[in-house]
Design a protein that fits this description.
This protein is mostly helical and 277 residues long. It is 63% helix and 0% strand.
């Protein structure tokens, strides 16, 4: 049986492995226990996780415009963008495991499960890309998800609030419509993959909600107002809708949070926090 040190080193190795297939194999091989390393040295805040030389990373405005999903090229572009999100999500889950020591064991169990489920999502999407005649890396992509990881690397409360509960929660809002569009385009196989991802992602956002509220309780913070203030202070995008209210409730969003988000759809989040002087 591997030692705790070897288990933790295996998390770091998976995080910094660049080859997608090797990363998949290493994440699949991770085993419990992983949580007994309070002295673990987190990677530098500027550290870049392992990722292949392609896709070429560009700004969101420099991405090619999406084509209609009734074309194979349009479906490939959509699935490639989703595969890139899932590849980043593997690294995000591994980084949460590797960066933040001192949590209860359930924190590490949760993020190990998330890392392994995100790995399976990536594999399923890559298979769809190969079915359509290409592979992951064939199109450019942007790096917004990892940029937020770096922005929140110093504080697990900010990470839990702004990555799973903002960026990943957006997937709960948009995935049902994408799935329906794929079905309308006659691609039931790709739609079934999105249905699997949608089911798992609700649980991933719930993990973020669970540990965000745990950290708020530890620090004596009221979670709803803390979430709203963090969005206004740290999130540079707009609040987008419509919101998948049922899925977000299942993922741990409170009614005050949902009411607040609903009122701000279409508005920039980064504004002066309510109640601030």
């Amino acid at each position: 049986m591997q030692s705790d040190t070897q288990a933790w080193a295996a998390v770091g190795a998976a995080l910094y492995t660049a080859d997608p297939q090797q990363k998949v194999e290493q994440v699949r091989a991770l085993r419990w226990p992983l949580a007994l390393m309070p002295e673990v040295s987190a990677p530098p805040l500027s550290a870049i996780p392992g990722r292949p030389s392609h896709p070429l990373l560009v700004g969101p405005k420099d991405l090619p415009k999406r084509r209609a999903l009734h074309t194979q090229a349009g479906r490939f572009a959509l699935l490639h963008a989703l595969a890139h999100i899932e590849f980043n999500a593997i690294n995000l889950a591994l980084d949460a495991l590797y960066r933040f020591p001192g949590f209860p064991e359930d924190f590490y169990r949760d993020w190990l499960r998330v890392a392994q489920e995100e790995t399976e999502h990536f594999v399923l999407l890559r298979q769809q890309l190969q079915r359509l005649g290409g592979d992951y890396g064939d199109l450019p992509a942007h790096d917004g998800l990892w940029e937020m990881a770096l922005d929140t690397a110093a504080d697990p409360l900010e990470r839990m609030a702004l990555v799973p509960r903002v960026l990943e929660a957006r997937g709960l809002d948009v995935t049902p419509a994408m799935r329906e569009r794929l079905l309308a385009a006659g691609d039931a196989e790709a739609a079934a993959v999105l249905a699997r991802i949608e089911s798992d992602e609700c649980g991933h956002v719930a993990v973020g909600s669970r540990w965000f509220r745990y950290l708020c309780a530890q620090r004596g913070l009221e979670p709803d107002s803390t979430f709203m203030i963090l969005l206004q202070q740290r999130y540079r995008g707009r609040i987008q809708g419509p919101l998948a209210l049922t899925a977000r409730r299942a993922a741990g969003f409170s009614e005050p949070e949902l009411d607040w988000l609903q009122r701000r759809i279409g508005q920039p989040a980064a504004t002066k926090p309510e109640g601030a002087p």
